[in-house]
Every structure is written in C-alpha cells, then in structure tokens.
Amino acid sequence: MNAQLLIWSVIGAIAAMDAILLPAQGMTIASRWPAFGLVVLMCGLSVLIHRRNPAAARFAGAVAQIWALSDAGAILSYTAMAATPFAMMDASLARWDAALGFDWMAWYTWVHAHPPVHALLAYVYASAPVQVVLLILYFCHADRRRVDELLLAGLLPIVIITPVMMLLPAVGAWSQHGVGIEPWRADILALRDHALPVIGRTQGIISFPSYHTVLGVVLAYAARGRKWFIPSLVLNLLLIAAVMTEGAHYGVDLLSGLAVAFVSIAATRWLLARTARARAFDLLPALPARL
Predict the structure, then answer these.
(1) Residue 286 above 50 pLDDT?
(2) For residue range 79-122, what is the model confidence (pLDDT) as tens digits?
(3) What's the mean per-residue pLDDT of the chain?
(4) Residue 198 is inside which H or E element, if any?
C-alpha cells in the first residue's frame, strides 16, 4: 500500500463510520453534492496532469483529500456527539484544570485585559487553515513526501479524538466559566436531545482533546529542517496558547491535544516507513527461479 492509498483508506474508514452512525441515530445529511463534486474534480485534475505537472497534480490531490476529510470528519463528530450516552463533562474538566493548578479565568481575564494580545491570539488561532494550504503548496514543489506526512498526521487524530470525545463530551470553557456562549453550543445541545435530524452546516464541536492543539504541533513539525522553522514554531506555540481564550478549550484539552499530536506523529512516521519499505520491495527486480 502506498501513502496515497493509505490516506484515502483512512478517509474511507471515517466515511464508513459516518454511514453506520447516521442511520443508527436516525440522522441524515443535507446535500453534499458541491463538496462531492469538488473532490471528484480535484481527483480528476490530479490524474490528468500527473505526468505534465506532478507538483500541481499532488496539490490538487491534497485539496481533494483535505476537503473529503473535513466533511467526513465533521459529520463523524456530530453523529458521535449524538450517539454518546455519557453526561457532559464540563464541570469535571474545569475541576481537572484546578487540580493541575491552572487558573483558566486568570488567563482569560489577562488576555482580554490586553487587547493587542487578544487580537494577536485571535488572528493566530484563525491561521491554521492558511498554514495548511501554504505548507502543502510549498511541499508539493519541495518535498511531496512531506505532504503525505502532513496530511496523515492531521488525519489520524480524528480517529483518536472522536472516541475520546464520546467518553468525555463537553460544550466548552466559555459557558462553564460564564464568560460567553460558544457558537457551537446550540448544535451540541440539539445533538444531545436528538433534535438535529439533518446535518447541514457543521462546526468544530470537539472540546477534549483540542484538535487545534494537534494542528499546532503538526504544523510546526512539518516545518522542521527549513530555514523558517523558528518562525513557524513561534506562530504555532501562539496558536496553541490561543486555544483556551479563542477556542473555549480547557487547559486539559490542550494537554490531551499535545498527547494526541505526539502519538499521531509517531504513528505517521511508522506507517510511512512501512509503506516506503513495501514500495522499495515491490520495485526490486524479480529473482530468477533457479540460481
């Protein structure tokens, strides 16, 4: 199995889980034809220009994979939230923060008392999708193996995070600490009440572990060995710092996100090493039947 087949296999597995959970929860999805059409278009373009322009072909394929993953992963998070039988864990997550000596309100208050810091963290928090696109665009030309690594390291956490979220569902720290209402709160409550039979527009609804924290680690890791690694590292450390104030995450969401990121990177390295060895073995000339 090559890296591309591996990535599509994981996306397919996530889509298969969607297909199982949707009818089990009595849910359907609104038309996904535009998204499906984009994925097919990008895949077709990738095949057509593969020989003429391999870098552009890989970028088109990566766009298809990201779009398919985003849609399938978001649907999985919604069906999983509807399926979980466990009580909301916001109070417990806040207690765990306190037990670790982390004062969430003190951090939130300090950030909001310094508008330039708050504005910076808000911009950095929103930079993750832009960073993904720019890194993929760069590595499609510079090192296409790094594209496979980045996509797989961003894909595997979905498989890890979703069951953890089912065990420890939560709305977010804004509501828990009384400082605001999360934009996704209404969707979570509707899913919990089985009052959202049709999934239309989706939002990021997973609190524990923090997927933005995972992305921060993965994006910085992807930039290793490049002259701009230090700026990327600083940017993504700020992104991770922003998840609590800008993403309504608890401190333990951040810590668990770090753990998921390191596990995912290790799994990605292992899987890609295996695919590389398998490919090298396949390319070996056949040995003669008799020596």
Answers:
(1) no
(2) 999 999 999 999 999 999 999 999 999 999 999 999 999 999 99
(3) 92
(4) strand 198-199
Measured at the alpha carbon of residue 83, what is the angle toward residues 78 and 85, in degrees to the nearest 5? 130
Residue 119: which residues within 8 A CB-CB, separation 6 or more?
none
DSSP 231-276: HHHHHHHHHHHHHHHHS---HHHHHHHHHHHHHHHHHHHHHHHHHH
Contact predicate 104/177, CB 8 Å = yes
Quickly count: other Cβ atoms within 10 Å of residue 113's Cβ: 9
Across residues 40-54, what is the average pLDDT?
92
Residue entry with tokens 């609190």:
207
Main-chain phi, psi angles of 197, to 5 degrees: -70, -25
104 touches 93 (CB < 8 A) = no
Cα–chain center distance at 278: 27
């209402």: which residue's tokens?
A: 181
User: Dihedral of CA 243/246/252/256: which sign?
Assistant: negative
Q: What's the confidence (pLDDT) of residue 136?
A: 95
What's 170's DSSP letter? -
pLDDT in tens, 146-159: 999 999 999 999 99
| CB atoms near residue 117 (< 10 Å) | 16
Q: Which residue is listed with tokens 């004062």?
A: 103
Percentages helix, strand, coil for the chain (3-state, rounded to 5) are 75, 0, 25
pLDDT at 280: 53
User: How many Cβ atoms are within 10 Å of 157's Cβ, its own excluded?
Assistant: 26
Q: How many residues does the chain have?
A: 291
Helix (H) or strand (E) segment spanning residue 136:
helix 128-142
Cβ atoms of 23 and 11 closer than 8 Å: no
